[in-house]
Amino acid sequence: MTSIEQTDVVVVGSGFGGAIPAYHLAAGGARVVVLERGPWLASDEFQHDFLLGSSYTRIFDFTVGDGMSVLAGNCVGGGSVVYFATMPRAPRFVFDRTGGLGRRMWPSSIDRDTLDPWYDVVSGALPVTEQSWDDVPFAGGLFAAACARAGRTANPVPSAVDKHLCTNCNWMMAGCRFDAKRSLLLNYLPAALAHGARIRPLHEVQRLTRTPTGGYQVHYDVVDDTDYRRTRGSGVIEAKIVVLAAGAGATPVILQRSAAALGTMPPAVGRYFSGNGERLNTAVVDEARARDLLGLDRGDGTAYEAHQIGRGPCVATWDKLDDSLPEYSRFSLEQLYFPPGLGTVLAQVPGATGPTWFGREKKEMLRRWRSWLTVFTMSEDDNEGVFGAPPQRGNAERIAQQMLGRGSLRYDPTENTLRGWAESDAEVRDILERDGLARVRPWTNDQVGAYTVHPLSSCRIGDDPATSALDDRHELRDHPGIFVTDGSAVPGALTVNPALTIAALAERAVPGLVRAAQRRGVAVRYGAPSPDGTRTKAVPPPLAA
């Protein structure tokens, strides 16, 4: 009989929700194994192109659902490797949202005041820093100038970017070659490795089963490093604690598939999915108007023509993050760089007389792509996403050898969500279309439905067992020893970028994880210092000879 590997803790996923518990538990003395379904790339392996097989297709997971598509990280470091490192704290009103429930969604134990100390911990560990106007690249300056002219305020956003190392190459989504972006490869993961944690890339967890002693067996497949549709073996690891952090599009699927062995899942598993109320508008800027109306000049007579220069969101307007406004009318707008590929396909032609997404007018729009300004909305939605039956393996039926899959998520936006999108679209037009500065059109929902880069809430925390899969300590209801610490656990849309909130919640969950592990006989303690990411990196081990 083949022996089954044993450890204290298995962490599924290595993004914010996985790396943070992995570090603290390993530093506290527990034996920790991290299973990551994606590859492990070092800095010099991140490539500045969009070819199939490059880092761009290897480290992303794009899952097309029914009415909602999800773009997520698929690599060691998870979403932190592909994110834009914009790290605001959630507004105070978010924690009092009622959404479609008609009552507070968040647990009573969590509000902005109780989460602020955990925000502080993460902000110091990465670190998160404020940007000045001198740090803002051209696209941010254009958006800020347009906001000011329209009577709106604009703010440089806090970010986890080392401004001295950043080259403004705008290839952040393909991984940062320069270690300027403070991904988890530079802090929590190397610290976890230093304390004995083991990270295993290309290990896709399929299901959990229970051991006779009350622990769990984690069943995984080893994924081919080139064609993710193929596997190169399978295995089982036995652990006393399992931390699920595979992402809001994958964690509920693992639990759904595990129900046959573990028993009935809480009714909120795979329900109440939120796309963080996200929406994109593309503005095609009139260069002459940008020069004359806004007084912009790059020094050579060019007003803008700089869509590709920068580092993702650098400037936001938060005027509509006002707790006096009614729910679903609150949103933030960020200037954003969305790279070629999906961005050029889904961007629509403003004022088109023919087809909006292909044809002669689209070709002309693409010719002027350097004059684009993309505006990203994060609003309040109604948590209307529901996952259907899980696929045979993984979180989706793989369509291509990398990146693309078809998932079981169904999303039918309510009138509340649609109203929020309509109000935010109108705000974008009011800011950017004044006096012919630009022509604006939202990305279509006709081809792939809505889309999100910040999936949330599919296994959320809460006080009500009927509407929350987890208690306020992130433990899965009726399944002690299983914890969920990724974006799945966030109760609802945040109206801002969620990475810092996901990370803060994961930090907050660690003391409870340690206590649960101690009760199960794991020799572990809590109290490790913040990881020092200034001198080390999480570098993949050399290939075996």
TrEMBL record:
It holds the Pfam family GMC_oxred_N. Gene3D superfamilies: FAD/NAD(P)-binding domain. Residues 411-506 form the Glucose-methanol-choline oxidoreductase C-terminal domain. One of its GO terms (molecular function) is flavin adenine dinucleotide binding. The keyword Repeat does not apply. Residues 525-545 are annotated as: Disordered. Residues 66-260 form the Glucose-methanol-choline oxidoreductase N-terminal domain. PANTHER family: LONG-CHAIN-ALCOHOL OXIDASE (PTHR46056). Belongs to the GMC oxidoreductase family. This is Choline dehydrogenase. The lineage of its organism: Bacteria, Bacillati, Actinomycetota, Actinomycetes, Micromonosporales.
